[in-house]
Amino acid sequence: MDKALAIGMVLLLLGLAVVAHAQLGEVAGPLSFNVSIGSSQTLNYTIVNAGNNSINFYIKDAITSTIKNETTPTITASPMNGTILPHQQYSVKIDVSMPSGDKPGLLWQGTLQALESTNVTAPGGAVIQTGVLKGITVMSSQRKGLPLYYVGAFVAVVVVIGVSSYIIYGRRRKGRKGSQSATTFPSKERGNGTYGKPSAPSISGKGKRRKSARSSRTSSRTSRSKTRRKQSRASKRSGRSR
Amino acid sequence: MNKKIRWEIPAMLVLFAAFISVIALHSSIAYANSPNQNVNANVVVPSTCYLAVTPVTISFGSLPPGSNYATNVLVTGSDVDGNANSYLYVSGGNWIATSHFGVSNTTWNPTSMVSYAGNSLSTTPTNTLIQIPFGAGTSNVIYFGLNVPGATPAGTYTQTITLYASC
A 17-76 residues with CB below 8 A of B? Predict the structure, then answer.
């Protein structure tokens, strides 16, 4: 009698609810991140509802190990909560950002939890909540170099600037040389007293074009002396022919 | 001569196009009317584990300060729809009322115990090493016990215990 009473008391004290929680599940396998220093990586964490009722869930902040003198990577989940319809799956994006100051080859381990939201209460007792837990590992790797196309684009820009500068500079130099050098002597003007004079730049009749002062002085001096020499030769010849 | 070549080539092209069209139309009609059509479909079924627990609340009755409850309060976990075994993890929160006492006063154990003993519950998920096999008709169990510290103020305390499947 005493034993029966004791058993009955124990059963009474054990609680009343016998209905099981809905079936919350996850796709098997760890979430492994290999993140370059200063960059981030995103993977999907898939949770599933195998029951006949919708499941409201929320994601708890990831718990990870720490490394002395190193900044722990930032792990964010999106979305942080939601509703999984009956017999449906739900993908939560897990993003890991690796701080730029960390060293490569470091490993952090932790867990990510997806918990079923519950409205059950148990005054004087404990509520049993259901969840799924995923192990995560995060490895830091060397910073990635600039992609090849960035390097190629940079080289192309440098080449274009260089070539265009050379062309522009080259043209300017030619222009200066052309104004400084002795001008040609057109055949029309020979023998008419103006032989040896430099061909004047095209004059529209409205006024002479201005030459640059220095170059016009130099060229006129040179042409004057040449003109004198030629005139003296010509006069000598004409004197002889008489 | 050149004039003859000019009209012959387009004429041949038109004839060729018409020929191809007739064949294509015939094939599509033949295909549509064929009683045996094969459509290849595929699906990837990943390894998945689930957890359903019963009961969803447990009670330790009325315990005076300084007394405890044996680690024999049963909770069952099962995975009817999964195709991968999973391990059971457990964590908990503090007992809360107008006052509170710590989570570690709750213990858990894979087997029933006649006294208050076992592993202390913590706020961090702990692998119990209890495997939840997949498939209908399979399950596994975990037991809980409680100690109420001395001088705990009177009240109706509540705790949340979380059980996780991990695969």
Answer: 17-29, 46, 48, 50-51, 63
| HEC letters along chain B | CHHHHHHHHHHHHHHHHHHHHHHHHHHHHHHHHCCCCCCCCCCCCCCEEEEEEECCEEECCCCCCCCEEEEEEEEEEEECCCCCCEEEEEEECCEECCCEECHHHEEEECCCCCCCCCEECCCCCEEEEEEECECCCCEEEEEEEEECCCCCCCCCCEEEEEEEEEC
Tokens of A94: 């897990």
pTM score? 0.66
Q: Do A14 and B74 touch (CB under 8 A)?
A: yes
Looking at domain B52-166, which CATH architecture does it have? Sandwich (2.60)
Out of A15, A27, A129, the one facing B55 most closely (by C-beta) is A15
pLDDT computed for residue B166 by the predictor: 97
d(CA A166, CA A172): 10
CATH number of the A20-141 domain: 2.60.40.10
Chain B residues within 8 A of A16 when measuring between CB atoms? 55, 57
Where along chain B do its domains lie?
A: 52-166
In chain B, which residues have their Cβ closer than 8 Å to the Cβ of A9?
61
Chain B residues in contact with A63 by the CB 8 A cut-off are 124-125
In the structure, what pLDDT confidence band is assigned to residue A78 with cuts at 50, 70 and 90? very high
